[in-house]
Amino acid sequence: MNDLNLAYAEKVEQWNLPEWNYIVEESAIVFRLTDIEKNQLSNSTTARIIATIPFAANCEDPERTAIAHICLYLAELKGFQKYCAHVPSDDSDIFNRLEAISNFKGGNREIIRHGINLLALKMLEGYKRSSQKDEKNGIYNPLVSGKWNYKSIKNDLLNKLSKIDCPALDELFYSDVFAYAW
I need a surface site. Which of 55, 63, 83, 116 has the fewest CB within 10 A? Predict the structure, then answer.
């Protein structure tokens, strides 16, 4: 185990359960989550990836970064869809919608990039899963519009993920990366 992974493992040991539960509890209060929404957040792999990246990358103030990014994620889910939903101007780059949660103080840039690539892959899979429903309901989806090529983007992301070794994120989340939509 290299120094970065050892540092991560030590932080997760100190942070993982009590702080994740704290973030979930406080988020439930701040965002007025129902019990069902609170449980969904607690079990959300996407939210855990978002919160874990600053720890895995050994960023400065990882708790603050994790909380800030989770708040942005929840704000989008809970009411800012009008401003945060995918729009045609996001089509130029799959990472456009992830920009707001891509700011980190210090840390290993390769590990950060790995985590963001995992989030992009989850988002892509979400667009694929919702494409029929989106088309039926008139919701903009870059796969439905033909602006994105699913296979090409997926292969590119998988290639990027294979080049950066981050067991801390992969072991926790990779098996679930295709489990449910963004």
Answer: 83
- The answer as to whether 172 is a domain residue is yes
CB 83 within 8 A of CB 35: no
Residue bearing the bigger pLDDT, 173 or 93: 93
pLDDT digits (tens, 9 = 90+) for 34-92: 999 999 999 898 999 999 899 889 999 998 999 999 999 999 888 787 788 888 899 99
User: What's the domain count of the chain?
Assistant: 1
Q: What is the pTM of this model?
A: 0.84
Residue 41 within a domain:
yes
Degrees (nearest 5) of the Cα angle 11, 15, 19? 160
CA 10 to chain centre: 22
> Would you say 51 and 69 are in contact if contact means Cβ atoms under 8 Å apart?
yes
The single residue listed with the structure tokens 């994105």 is 148
Give the whole-angstrom CA distance, residue 131 versus residue 137. Answer: 10
